[in-house]
Amino acid sequence: MTRQDSLSYAAGDTTYASRFGVGDAAAHSTLQGTAHSTARGAAHGASRGTAQAGAHGLALSRAARELGLKRGELDLAVQLGQVRSTPDASGGPPRIAPYEIDRLRAADGFPDALRKRVRTVGTREAADLLAITGHRFTRLARTGHFVPVRFYLNRYRAVVWLYLAGELRDFAHDHAELLTGRTPPAVRAALAAGEDRRPRNWRGRKLGLLLRSTADPWGRAAAIAAMLDPVPVAEVVPDPYERSHLRVLRPDLLPGGRPESPAGRALVDRLLLADHPDEILWHRVSLADALREARHASPAPRPAPPDAVVPATVPRPARHAAPGRPARRPSAPPLPRRTPRTLLDRLRRRRRQPQT
After folding, report:
1. Cα separation of 17 and 11, whole Å?
2. What is d(CA 294, CA 272) in angstroms, rounded to the nearest whole number?
3. Which residues, 6 or more positions from 112, have their beta carbon under 8 angstroms from its beta carbon?
4. Which among 271, 112, 289 has a CA at the least distance from the CA of 211?
5. Which candidate among 215, 296, 316, 347 keeps its CA 20 to 30 Å from the CA of 326?
6. What is the spatial distance between Cα 226 and Cα 246, in angstroms, rounded to a whole number?
7. What whole-number distance in Å separates Cα of residue 183 and Cα of residue 224?
8. Does pTM surpass 0.85?
9. Cα gap 24→1, rounded to integer Å
10. Sign of the C-alpha dihedral, residues 253, 255, 256, 258?
11. Count of Cβ atoms closer than 10 Å to residue 245 Cβ
12. Which residues have a Cβ under 8 Å from the Cβ of 87 and sit 6 or more positions away?
């Protein structure tokens, strides 16, 4: 489906559903494209397209240096829409147009304001920011009140979740009652049942960002399929050529790379795929709807049918000798080389023959 419903989040997260990219991604992409066109027209004229802007834009590493950000901070800023990017004309990574660098530099409080919007904190820093204990923050995070923006494995192969500091401050302002006093009964019941919504909420947020970043119907379907195990994908997409096309367009859910150890890779792979029955069902329905839109837009690539007319190959012209020079005769095939063992056997047989 083209709309990520807030039911895929916990009840405490529905207030922030629109902030996590859960709304209508198509409408958001349209608004974002309009804003890009307006800024591009003011800076360089409306005649310059996205491909031309991307061809002359800055690479992400250089743009990070120009903005005073780390590369990871810039990647996160691009994903969150804080920094507008343009697709590369050659199909490579996105680029940052020079007028976007100028716009960000001209903003008030640059670069501290931009760095503050993409600042991420772990559990300890988040608890200090909210003035609560780390245990209480973990309980609220497990029940879905905070949505992670990133995660990684530490050296002990433990999952470290990262959160946006700005969202935590907004939560403290809007839900101050959850930070003090007794834990609500619903939260205690979810904890008693072993609830941990952090992986699921991260997947929902990641999918929202992926859907917002592309308007290609097949690309949107591939983003949804990336959240599912290959078995349910094969059930929803029985055509092998369509499944192959979705695999080609499948986005990388963890651009930083997976751990090298087999145990770490297995743990990360479990976090990337939907594991709850209602979450799997929701993605299956969403994939079926996205697939119908993609088929309506354009069919998946397929090989040519057997009875298709194949153009005849043009024979190569014969090579003629230059005037006054005899034509080259075709070389004879090389004679089989005698192995040293064969020569040694012949010498031995000659020695054994009687001398006459």
Report:
1. 10
2. 24
3. none
4. 289
5. 316
6. 9
7. 35
8. no
9. 10
10. positive
11. 20
12. 50, 51, 54, 94, 95
List of residues 6+ apart from 271 with CB closer than 8 A = 151, 159, 199, 202, 203
CA 342 to chain centre: 62
**pLDDT 10s digit of each residue in the chain, 356 long?**
433 333 333 333 333 333 334 333 333 333 344 434 433 443 343 334 444 444 568 998 999 999 999 998 999 999 888 999 887 777 677 899 999 999 999 999 898 999 999 999 999 999 999 999 999 999 999 999 999 999 999 888 899 999 999 999 999 999 999 999 899 999 999 999 999 999 999 999 999 999 998 889 999 999 999 999 999 999 999 999 999 999 999 998 887 677 888 888 899 999 999 999 999 999 999 999 999 999 999 999 998 777 666 555 555 555 555 556 666 666 666 666 655 566 667 777 776 666 55
**Residue whose pair of structure tokens reads 């890009």 in the numeric block:** 36
Helix, strand or coil, per DSSP, at residue 330: coil
- The first and second tokens of residue 246, run together, are 């979705």
Report residue 286 as tokens.
Answer: 């969403």
Burial of 316 (0-12, 13-18, 19+ CB in 10 A): exposed
Q: Closest Cα to residue 197, out of 2, 20, 18?
A: 20
Only one residue has tokens 């929803």, namely: 236
Residue 329 structure tokens: 């005769």
β-strands 150-153, 120-121 pairing: unpaired
Which two three-digit tokens encode residue 257? Answer: 């790379």
Structure tokens at 17: 């559903």
* Three-state DSSP class for residue 28: helix
Identify the CA nearest to 146 among candidates 165, 128, 119.
Answer: 165
Residue 202 φ/ψ, nearest 5 degrees: -65, -40
Instruction: Give the Cα separation of 287 and 243 in Å (integer).
Output: 12
Which residues is 160 bridged to in the sheet? 152
- CA nearest 95: which of 70, 117, 64, 119? 64
> Nearest Cα to 177, choosing from 132, 226, 240?
132
Distance CA 159, CA 123 (A): 11
Task: Write the single-letter amino acid at 167.
Answer: E
